[in-house]
Design brief:
mainly beta, 5-stranded antiparallel sheet, 3-stranded antiparallel sheet, 2 helices
């Protein structure tokens, strides 16, 4: 009778059940990823007009609202880039603007929050990377803002990158009359 409880098959089943039941108990091989802190440079919003966009009409205007960090280093440069792509990725256009920023010292000198906010306006005439008028359809945009400083040789180096903002808009061949 005793040999019945200790036969190899029974021992194997009990051992397998015990291993399955204890698997994952307080054992973690993956490192917990720390929560990332949002960057000090932020893209608050992107407004596009006119919608839907007609390439031969008024250019598409992107109004990009940006919040600057509390402390801006000397010789800081704000670079705002917008990549416009067709959904098939066969047509694209890169819009870019750079501007020098005034240096701010201590955050107590800043005054109000609105002094740290900035609007960047970019326009698109409806042409792709080959200067051809784009076809009708849905288009994606991706806006990225970077705060750059000049190195000793005068080349810009990225100091802070904002999280990208994405959106979509429609391109129509002709304006709709209502």
């Amino acid at each position: 009778m005793v040999s019945r409880f200790f036969n190899p098959w029974t021992v194997g089943v009990v051992l397998a059940a015990w291993l399955l039941a204890s698997a994952g108990d307080d054992i973690s091989y993956a490192k917990a990823k720390p929560k990332s802190r949002p960057p000090d440079l932020k893209i608050l919003s992107v407004d596009t007009t006119p919608l839907p966009f007609v390439p031969n009409g008024t250019p598409l205007t992107l109004i990009i609202k940006i919040e600057l960090p509390k402390i801006i280093p000397e010789e800081a440069l704000l670079d705002v880039s917008t990549l416009i792509t067709s959904t098939s990725r066969s047509s694209f256009r890169l819009l870019s603007s750079r501007q020098m920023l005034q240096t701010t010292g201590d955050s107590s000198e800043l005054g109000s929050e609105t002094g740290r906010r900035l609007e960047v306006v970019q326009t698109w005439n409806g042409t792709d990377h080959n200067d051809r008028i784009v076809v009708e359809g849905m288009y994606d945009y991706q806006v990225q803002a970077k705060l750059m400083v000049l190195n000793k040789s005068g080349a810009p180096l990225t100091r802070i990158s904002a999280w990208k903002k994405r959106g979509i808009f429609e391109v129509k061949a002709t304006a709709r009359s209502d």
